[in-house]
Specification:
The chain is mainly α and 385 residues long. It is 70% helix and 0% strand.
């Protein structure tokens, strides 16, 4: 009717009812999905190294950082070509350290997935299986990456001996037969194939395949690679080999377990509170072992050089500069680890949310750089710039 107010009265909310979310621009109307999940008790948002919330993207960034570091370190320390000798070309020159770096990271991830099963335990499968099921798939692909890169490294190293020629099966066989580095890589590839098989069995049968067996096979698969480095040429051969192998095992366990714990458990506060304190004990031992053996290996190699002398060879030779670079990276990693252990670990053990993915994410980034530098270190001669 004309003159009658037709506006309906506003309905009143029941007493005690929660306010309804408003529209954008109104109180409560601009909340995003992450805020709603957080207020509803969902998993906390995670940012790996403050760069990305995606574990897959972060893994790709780690691989990319290691590859770039290997290329830069190789280019910065490559000796000048000798006049009259053919060059193997950039594909071989940079492909060898890149393939070896990816080989190492694949084996590290394989070891880390196996150790993750031990760190979370086997007594609560209803909670751990949601984490371990996707982790086993990652372990399979990491083993494949390791195996393929070992075989590619053999082909590239063969091409390095015959610049300008495409490696033939006969040339590859001659390289494997006569060069210790080739035998080491072939043996590592064989261990990689065994790891692929064990990872496939683990996907089918779960933790009935012992985690200790999987970790042991992966660690043993890295030991023959010490034949490709400077340790094979030392005067104190036996001591050098033992020191190098301890260095490789400790660094692999340290980096692999850290990567697995952070990538797969950062959103699971209950499992993280159980696994990270266990990992911290392992990491403490590995840090000291890696630091001591790495320093020992580098200084002895420089000290045995007949054309240089310590301490000047630390900054006047290609090998010495890489030793110093790796030492600085280890110090940075140790500093990040101290922050996590002293400031974050007590809060994590109490079940509180922390920025552990940020701190440990950067620790993983620096570890990836250190692995790349270590690969280049095995190929650089102790000669002045």
């Amino acid at each position: 009717m004309a003159g009658v107010n037709t506006v309906q009265p506003r309905r009143s909310e029941p007493v005690g009812a929660p306010p309804r979310p408003g529209r954008p621009g109104q109180p409560g109307g601009g909340r995003n999905v992450a805020q709603r999940k957080r207020s509803a008790g969902g998993p906390p948002p995670v940012s790996f190294a403050g760069l990305t919330g995606s574990a897959l993207v972060f893994a790709g960034l780690l691989l990319a950082a290691a590859v770039v570091a290997a290329v830069v370190a190789t280019g910065a320390t490559e000796p000048q070509p000798v006049t009259g000798l053919d060059s193997s070309g950039p594909l071989v020159q940079f492909g060898i350290p890149v393939a070896r770096t990816l080989l190492d990271l694949g084996a590290v991830a394989t070891v880390g997935i196996a150790l993750l099963a031990r760190l979370v335990g086997f007594d609560r499968p209803e909670k751990t299986e949601t984490v371990m099921r996707p982790a086993r798939g990652v372990g399979l692909w990491a083993s494949v990456l390791w195996t393929v890169c070992a075989l590619v490294s053999i082909v590239l190293l063969t091409a390095e001996l015959e610049p300008g020629a495409v490696p033939t099966p006969a040339a590859i066989w001659a390289y494997l037969s006569n060069i210790p580095a080739g035998k080491g890589l072939l043996l590592s590839a064989a261990f990689g194939l065994v790891s692929v098989w064990l990872a496939w069995l683990t996907i089918r049968h779960g933790e009935n395949v012992p985690a200790e067996l999987r970790a042991g096979v992966a660690l043993f698969g890295l030991l023959p690679l010490s034949l490709t480095g400077h340790a094979s040429n030392w005067m104190y051969h036996d001591l050098g080999m033992v020191s190098m192998e301890l260095h490789v095992v400790a660094a692999t366990a340290w980096a692999g377990a850290l990567g697995a714990v952070i990538v797969f458990l950062s959103r699971r506060a209950d499992l993280l509170a159980r696994a990270l304190p266990r990992y911290s004990k392992l990491a403490t031992c590995c840090v000291f072992l890696v630091g001591f053996t790495g320093l020992f290996n580098g200084l002895v190699e420089l000290g045995l050089s007949p054309i240089t002398s310590l301490p000047s060879s630390l900054w006047t030779t290609r090998y010495g500069v890489l030793v110093l670079t790796k030492a600085v990276l280890i110090v940075v990693i140790a500093a990040l680890a101290i922050v996590v252990r002293t400031r974050l670990l007590p809060q994590i053990a109490a079940g509180r949310r922390t920025a552990v993915a940020v701190w440990c994410g950067w620790e993983l980034v620096v570890l990836a750089l250190a692995f790349a530098v270590a690969v280049v270190l095995t190929r650089v001669p102790v000669t002045p710039f």
